[in-house]
Amino acid sequence: MRIIIITGASSGMGREFARQLDGYLEHIDEFWLIARRTDRLHELAKELKKDCRIFQCDLSQRSSMVELIQELETKKPKVKMLINCAGYGKTGKFEKLNYQDVTGMIDVNCRALSALTYSVLSYMCSNSRIINLASVAAFMPQPEFSVYAASKSYVLSFSRALRKEIDDRGIWVTTICPGPVNTEFFDVADKKNKESWYKSKFMVRCEDVVNRALYDSLKKRDISIYGIPMKCMYVLSKVFPHRILTKIIHKLNMYNSDENV
Ligand SMILES: NC(=O)c1ccc[n+]([C@@H]2O[C@H](COP(=O)([O-])OP(=O)(O)OC[C@H]3O[C@@H](n4cnc5c(N)ncnc54)[C@H](OP(=O)(O)O)[C@@H]3O)[C@@H](O)[C@H]2O)c1
């Protein structure tokens, strides 16, 4: 049995990966879809042509993947694609974040992504793919998004190193680094979901980011960055000292803050 595993499939980019892959991978037998909101996963499963298995996992909890790992051990599928999409960020000053979110972002974005990749790797064979969702936030430290940006730097660094370790097995890791994408991400990141200059200028469609990511993964590319503005951010983060960039981000945050309105 050949499968594709997608975390964060209940919404946004995870769901879109399932929709786009459903159309054109004949040799895949099942999607294994992972998230907390199983009602959403069932809705998606109805919509897809391929068979789906649904796993309710709260990836912030260490024990959450037990059932999934047992299924892997029992069914011994060939995992052709692992797409680690589950993740979230909370904006705000570090001291003002709540404790669960500080640890939760690291648990979901870093620990669960690494743990699942570790558990799945032995079921992957030649010409398989891993797609990990980082962010443009991975390129530099971000005041008032500090834990999230650091967690995505981890994803980028881990994925690039892993890619080198396993490319001789024909398993290709691609890291996706989007700027703002039109999903539910910002409803979670900031309950007020304020309209910032950054979002209004650079927000892109989820469908386009995922389409580009699949193309880059197919081409065995190391990194996928959608759009010229985010490619410029990448170059900027390589050229300018991070000390200066964090100062600029901090100033822009202050400008955008409620306190200054
Ligand atoms: N949207 C953006 O602007 C943007 C930009 C750069 C990078 N990213 C990254 O892209 C990825 C996908 O985000 P998105 O934009 O598609 O946001 P989204 O629509 O909010 O989707 C996030 C997904 O993660 C899942 N998730 C969150 N916490 C979880 C937990 N504790 N256990 C299991 N699943 C959990 C959610 O499922 P449940 O709530 O049902 O559990 C949901 O399916 C994330 O890693 C995000 O950091 C997003």
Automatic annotation (TrEMBL):
CDD domains: SDR_c (cd05233)
Biological classification of the source: Bacteria, Bacillati, Bacillota, Clostridia, Eubacteriales
Family statement drawn from the similarity comment of this UniProt entry: Belongs to the short-chain dehydrogenases/reductases (SDR) family.
Entry GO terms, CC: membrane
Molecular function as annotated in GO: oxidoreductase activity
InterPro entries reported for this sequence: NAD(P)-bd_dom_sf, Sc_DH/Rdtase_CS, SDR_fam
Protein name as annotated: Short-chain dehydrogenase
A Pfam family hit: adh_short
Annotated keywords: Oxidoreductase
